[in-house]
Design goal:
By secondary structure, the chain is of the alpha/beta class. 35% of the residues lie in helices and 35% in strands. Strand 1 and strand 2 form a beta hairpin. It is elongated. The chain starts with a strand and ends in an 8-residue tail after the last helix. The model has no long low-confidence stretch (mean pLDDT 84).
Length: 238
Amino acid sequence: MSFFIAGLDLGQSRDYTALAIVEATPTEHHLPYVDIDSAYGLLIDQVAIIDGPPVSLALRHLERVELGTPYPAIVSHVAGRMRAVPGGSLLAIDKTGVGVAVADMFVGAGVPHICVTITGGDQVQGEGTEWRVPKRDLVHGLLVALQQGRFKYAAGLPMVPQLIQELTAFELKVNAQTGHDSYEAWREGTHDDLVLAVALACWPAEREVEARMQAGMQEIAQRELEREISGAGGVWPV
């Protein structure tokens, strides 16, 4: 079943704020397992349908907020957009430059969200609603989805030409001392707000589907373990 995830790259005085909303559709995996017929206590073959990767990502909304818009107005605008999403949506907020105060405004607005601090490192860290994610992980995940044909957008969607321009302006840079790599806009003054907003939506969408897959497989393993412990469906006494 598909679900929606939004990404918000919060700009400052000279940077745009960008909002992207992505619809994520997991692949259905049919996993066979052995269960017990409740009526007769005999073993029966079952098939569990579990959401998992690969994930189809469809860009449904993309916009920039006018420069100089106060943060309270941005929060109000984004909250309105989120309420209009069918079935609700989780918002991934870039907390890198704006700190805790702006992110906390979304708590007051009742918007379910996670906070992502974008780093130049090489490891994802965090749990719950607070995460530290390397920039290369965010952008690389989006580029891989594009290359594999899993990321789609309508040609007539506003801001798509600007998004494509931003994507083509990125290059991979490697720090010779640390060995860390990062994706950066190679031309001075090039914006990356649209790319980051879309990447911020796609990253948790992929993680959510991975989590669903793991949870489904663990549930099947637990059922089979309980069946083995109970001994049901085994050899009948003579």
